[in-house]
Amino acid sequence: MSLQQRVREDFERRFGGPPTFIVRAPGRVNLIGEHTDYNDGFVLPMAIDRAVWIALRSREDGCVIGRSLDFDQECKFSVQDIQDGEAGWGEYLKGVAWALQEAGHALQGWEGVVAGDVPVGAGLSSSAALELATARAFAMTSGLQWDPKAMALIGQRAENEWVGVNCGIMDQMISAAGVEGHALLIDCRSLETQPVPLPPGTAVVVLDTATRRGLVDSAYNERRTQCEAAAHFFGVPALRDVSLDRFEAQADGLDEPIRRRARHVVTENARTLQATAAMRQGDAVEVGQLMNASHTSLRDDFEVSSDGLNKMVECAQREGACYGARMTGGGFGGCAVALVRAAAAQAFADTAAACYHAVTGIAPNVYICRATNGAETVQVNLGEETPR
């Protein structure tokens, strides 16, 4: 049974009638452009065919009642009086409602059933998917215009200021604005987006090491501080403003390891733009080589990889069907991503997983992914309530 069917049928059992709307918002994988977002740089993620779904209908009393099938828990609050609660999935619903109201939107309540298949904690942005599905739910019941950029900023504010996680904008932008069959080049300074088609005959495979990030705040904050120090050295607002030529001409004046941190960001921005051009030309070989170079830079210059990620990437790269592979996400655990020949994707997934298990003793999770649209309403039941 599909998730769309599950949330619809559970809604009917729980609330005694059909939902008016079914909405979905996807998770994501970043193909290239890592640790460039908070340096005002470029990222190239794609929305994946794993998502959070909500079946819902509006309420007139201002209450939001959400039931999570995944956690077997209920979240209930009033949009007129949103209070902090214990940490958990329901805080994302509250945070989005709070951020929408802070942006000046009048909200109507709703009742709904929530379920998803974005793995939690794997670095595939399950939280952004929940935020954008919630925003889409409020948009439908409260008559809000859907502006992907504005809604992504709402989701980011909910995560930063309500949930308390200092994330960048990439995850919410791709979940809000993804385009089927395409990755999305995001300029993290202007938030401009450009759909970029995947090379013909390729598939994207996510390789979850089944090791979870030890990305402690101190390590992340240290990288950000080092990048800011490098930008100050070059006299620019952010490392996005440093060209490769300028870096090579002046980088000797930087102390280690700041020089290596800056080299990763400067070269990664260049790789991301080069990968975008190669994808538009259908050049999977070039894209794969850039992904391989990205992993080397993340491992050696930015030092955010891990033993598990390195072994997974090595297993992927040795397969003939693989154009390229790299760690993806914040690092220190989580997932790698590979661009492979579509016709051999399943055989690649099986062999890479077996290789990783043989060298680590850990059974990984492997997902062959398709690029999908961002947050959308997939079902509307016309009746007493008409979509606005």
Q: What labels would you give this structure?
A:
single chain; 388 residues; alpha+beta; Ribosomal Protein S5, domain 2; Alpha-Beta Plaits; eight-stranded mixed beta sheet; four-stranded antiparallel beta sheet; disordered C terminus
Annotate the secondary structure layout:
Blueprint: H1 3-15, E1 21-32, E2 42-59, E3 63-68, E4 73-78, H2 90-102, E5 109-116, H3 126-142, H4 148-163, H5 170-177, E6 182-187, E7 193-197, E8 202-208, H6 217-234, H7 244-250, H8 258-280, H9 284-300, H10 307-317, E9 322-328, E10 335-341, H11 345-360, E11 365-369, E12 376-380
Parallel strand pairs: 3-5
Antiparallel strand pairs: 1-2, 1-12, 2-5, 2-6, 3-4, 6-7, 8-10, 8-11, 9-10
Helix pairs in contact: 2-3, 2-4, 3-4, 3-5, 4-5, 6-8, 8-9, 10-11
Number of strands: 12
CATH architecture of the largest domain: 2-Layer Sandwich
- Might you state the CATH topology name of the largest domain? Ribosomal Protein S5, domain 2
Helix segment count? 11
Strand content: 15-25%
Shape: globular
Sheet/helix structural class: alpha+beta
User: Which runs of at least 5 residues are low in confidence (pLDDT < 50)?
Assistant: 384-388
In N-to-C order, the SSE pattern is: HEEEEHEHHHEEEHHHHHEEHEE
Average of pLDDT = 94
Report on the biggest sheet. Answer: 8 strands, mixed
**Helical residues, percent:** 40-55%
